[in-house]
Specification:
The protein has 191 residues and is mainly α. It has 9 helices and no strands. It is elongated and about 55 Å long.
Length: 191
């Protein structure tokens, strides 16, 4: 049973997630966040206990939003087409915002900072399951869906991260085509 402050805590967590999706998680400070939410940093601590607990919840909620969208994403008609379908999903504004939060979280986690490391690990597990489910819905055999999911996710994340830092931007079409060929071959071999 939820306590009397639970609806307020839930609302603050949702608003904080919206804020982080717009402004990022790196360098998050409680005072500006509290001001944007119409509360105080002390009230945030009251509801979440610590800044780390708030940050962990925001990262989890951000990832949950992306996973829900991918879970609802229309399946591709064939395994080969799942690459284009996933790339289209990654171009959705909500997933792009969640990916920015994830990349910042993972970078801070690589430095060993908590709660970022634990949050990135949990996000990887949930997102990875959603990718595998999408691929399976798109015809990738269960026997290879996890391996194909790792390949697709790693490649798309690399392309997505490289886009803003390459000059000129990396031409993604040939890479996506090669990835689609690999997915098709793996699906035929294991199907």
């Amino acid at each position: 049973m939820a306590g009397p402050g639970e609806p307020r805590r839930h609302g603050l967590a949702e608003q904080a997630t919206d804020y982080v999706l717009e402004h990022g998680i790196a360098g998050l400070s409680l005072r500006p966040l509290a001001r944007a939410l119409g509360t105080s940093d002390r009230m945030l601590i009251y509801h979440f206990g610590t800044k780390d607990a708030l940050v962990a919840e925001v990262i989890e909620r951000s990832n949950d939003r992306a996973v829900r969208l991918l879970d609802e994403w229309p399946a591709a008609p064939a395994p080969r087409d799942s690459v284009a379908g996933m790339w289209a999903a990654w171009s959705e504004p909500l997933i792009e915002a969640c990916l920015r939060v994830y990349v910042q979280t993972a970078a801070l986690g690589l430095l060993g900072q908590e709660p970022y490391l634990s949050a990135a690990l949990r996000a990887n597990l949930a997102w990875g399951r959603a990718v595998v489910d999408y691929l399976a819905r798109s015809g990738v055999p269960e026997t290879s869906a996890e391996r194909v999911g790792n390949l697709v996710e790693s490649t798309l994340l690399g392309l997505w991260v490289d886009r803003p830092v390459h000059d000129p931007p990396t031409e993604t079409d040939p890479v996506l085509g090669d990835l689609a060929d690999a997915v098709e071959r793996l699906s035929r071999r294991d199907g």
